[in-house]
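Title: Comparing notes on inverse folding

I've been comparing how different people in this forum approach sequence design from structure. To keep things fair, I'm posting one structure and asking everyone to reply with a full sequence. Here's the target:
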């Protein structure tokens, strides 16, 4: 699992219980998954198709620094299946896990289109191969 993005839990991210609002966390996860898929598939037209069971393991509070981890579970023909975990940056306590997030690659017409990818790629390698 690679943890790419860090977030600082601010007052506007809290629920009435003064802990991190679950909906805000899911918004961050959806954006992280979308960004990951856009970069991997080299296509800005990627949508979230399916999100599996979500386990809110522990809560985060104001001032906590959390980090969002994503890893690839499977490359499909038009889909990319991801796994996600969010943890406290300082303690590594797990906050949430999402087993499967299915992102779908779309063509210009908005319909699912094969992405042609079969393995994780790194931007630095793509840039180096252009030299
Ligand atoms: C980042 C964001 O927030 S995006 C906004 C929220 N998301 C959206 O608005 C998406 C709305 N949904 C849609 O537009 C449509 O459902 C589409 C275009 C994504 C997919 O349409 P479908 O008719 O389901 O397409 P299709 O049957 O060809 O399936 C496409 C892929 O999704 C997979 N898939 C479809 N349904 C499911 C499902 N329920 N669970 C898991 N994977 C699924 C398929 O296996 C296929 O993957 P593959 O080609 O790798 O085998």
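Reply #1:
Here's my take.
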């Amino acid at each position: 699992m690679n943890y790419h993005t860090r977030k600082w839990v601010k007052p506007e991210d809290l629920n009435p219980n003064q802990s991190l609002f679950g909906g805000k966390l899911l918004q961050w996860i959806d954006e992280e998954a979308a960004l990951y898929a856009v970069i991997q598939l080299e296509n800005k037209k990627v949508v979230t198709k399916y999100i599996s069971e979500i386990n809110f393991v522990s809560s985060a509070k104001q001032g906590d620094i959390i980090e969002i981890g994503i890893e690839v579970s499977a490359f499909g023909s038009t889909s990319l299946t991801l796994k996600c975990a969010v943890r406290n940056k300082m303690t590594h306590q797990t906050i949430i896990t999402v087993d499967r997030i299915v992102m779908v690659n779309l063509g210009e017409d908005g319909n699912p289109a094969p992405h042609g990818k079969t393995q994780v790629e790194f931007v630095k390698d793509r840039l180096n191969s252009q030299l």
